[in-house]
Automatic annotation (TrEMBL):
<dbReference type="GO" id="GO:0003677">
    <property type="term" value="F:DNA binding"/>
</dbReference>
<protein>
    <submittedName>
        <fullName>Putative transposase</fullName>
    </submittedName>
</protein>
<dbReference type="InterPro" id="IPR036515">
    <property type="entry name" value="Transposase_17_sf"/>
</dbReference>
<feature type="domain" description="Transposase IS200-like">
    <location>
        <begin position="5"/>
        <end position="119"/>
    </location>
</feature>
<dbReference type="GO" id="GO:0004803">
    <property type="term" value="F:transposase activity"/>
</dbReference>
<dbReference type="GO" id="GO:0006313">
    <property type="term" value="P:DNA transposition"/>
</dbReference>
<dbReference type="Pfam" id="PF01797">
    <property type="entry name" value="Y1_Tnp"/>
</dbReference>
<dbReference type="InterPro" id="IPR002686">
    <property type="entry name" value="Transposase_17"/>
</dbReference>
């Protein structure tokens, strides 16, 4: 075979620093479009970007040449700069350090897409902490509650 053909599906989940509710509805969609543009600019495939006021989910199709941590670093850095340049928040906006990255097969794309598309409704019933710990347990990722989030009232 002369070429490499593959598609890796990754869902990134990360929060606003200190889990502040800073991603406001009037401009949130613009940030999600901007993030999709960052992904496209890296020659990757944005499937859906969505979230609520304190965290987001980014579902991408990655080529094997793209490092998972490099893409999330670029998304976080560039989108933070964009939010700050646009003056969307008072003070300085930044994302929480760290992230979750969860892999899926092709047959799961539609289910993951729908889950991410319905974040507002989903979080009427479940907190971000419950959701995130659920992901870690589902994917059998060991963790210590003490190091999950960077907020004071864990």
């Amino acid at each position: 075979m002369v070429g490499t053909f593959s598609q890796i599906y990754i869902q990134y989940v990360f929060a606003v620093r200190r889990r502040e509710n800073l991603l406001e509805k009037p401009w949130r969609e613009e940030v999600f479009k901007y993030i999709a543009g960052i992904i496209k600019g890296k020659n990757q495939k944005p499937i859906i970007v969505n979230g609520v006021s304190d965290h987001i989910h980014v579902f991408v199709g990655l080529k094997p040449s793209m490092n998972i941590c490099d893409l999330v670093r670029d998304i976080k850095n560039n989108s933070s700069n964009y939010i700050n340049e646009q003056g969307y928040v008072k003070g300085k906006f930044s994302w929480q350090e760290g992230y979750g990255a969860f892999s899926y097969g092709h047959s799961q794309i539609e289910r993951v897409y729908q889950y991410i598309a319905n974040q507002e409704k989903h979080h009427e019933k479940k907190s971000f902490k419950e959701e995130y710990i659920g992901f870690l347990k589902k994917f059998e990722i060991q963790f210590n509650d003490k190091y999950l989030f960077d907020w004071i009232d864990q």
